From TrEMBL:
Family: Belongs to the WD repeat MORG1 family.
Biological process, per Gene Ontology: mRNA splicing, via spliceosome
Designated name of the protein: WD repeat domain-containing protein 83
Protein localization: Cytoplasm
Gene Ontology cellular component annotations, sorted alphabetically: catalytic step 2 spliceosome; cytoplasm
Keywords: Cytoplasm, Repeat, WD repeat
InterPro entries found in the cross-reference section: WD40/YVTN_repeat-like_dom_sf, WD40_PAC1, WD40_repeat_CS, WD40_repeat_dom_sf, WD40_rpt, WD_repeat_MORG1
PANTHER family: WD REPEAT DOMAIN-CONTAINING PROTEIN 83, WD40 REPEAT PROTEIN
Domain of life: Eukaryota
First and last residues of every WD repeat: 19-61, 62-103, 104-145
Species: Favolaschia claudopus
Chief location bin: cytoplasm
KW Repeat (keyword) present: yes
PROSITE patterns registered for this protein in UniProt: WD_REPEATS_1, WD_REPEATS_2, WD_REPEATS_REGION
Amino acid sequence: MTQPARGPEPLPRHLHTTLAAHKGPVNVARYAKGAAKYILTGGQDRTVKLWNANLGTQVKTFAAHGYEVLSISVSHDNAQFASSGGDRSVFVWDVATAVTTRRLAGHLGKIHVVEFNDDASVLASGSFDSSVRLWDLRAQNRQAIQVLEEARDAVQTLHVGSTYITTGSLDGHVRTYDLRKGELRADYMGYPVTAVVPTQDSQTLLVTTLDSHIRLMDMANGKLLNDFAGHTNAEYRCRACFGHGEASVVCGDEKGTVWAWDLLDAKALQPNPPPQVHNKVITWTEHHPTEKGEMFTASADGTVKVWRQAEVP
């Protein structure tokens, strides 16, 4: 994608609305797919909540987890989502009825991450037990179809591509499994890996690690392409993401500030340093999938804040 000469779009920093109904930290939040302005949030309070981001209103609550919710993945058609956390089972939900359609058991510890593949036929989950399990949602059998056991510590993050799975672990490795060739490449990052987000073309990967750095890696060979720093992230999972058009990198940090960098030269965008917008660590940052002027931040302060570009008078 060619970028305009003036560089990336400025970050949406005008507070549109605050979503505040969780009791305790919000660990994860995800936009619905496509143009819709709906957000799913998961919290320490064991619930998943669906919000209308335009109106700032809560639509419904999904309650079945017995422990904290740590991860959410929305299917391509927004008809279902998966969630995981302290329960050791992955929950698959029907959005319309707010009931679980499947509970997938097999992990021996809390499940930090769950992700659908493109058509929601396969679900991958990564756990404190150091394994990744793949589940075939079209099969009647509720057993995992494959277990990836290469990690030596908790699997915190993963992404399911069309022909590959990329995982990040506290053991400091990003592992890319080529499902067609049956090959594995492990790239040692030196610090615990808490988030991996690929570009849409699957050529490059944004890797967040607990040394207050975010790195852009070449997915073909593991080569370092760029390094983004300035933010504070040494203890908690703070998920970084790409800004609009993948022209920038955005991350909320442990001080409650939202940083942004130019993807190409890794320079921090103004304001630098950014203002504090949450009272506690920002756990998750996500830009709207299609709109250039909207993103949100979720925080341990119990809120999710939706940010837009300030209206020009």
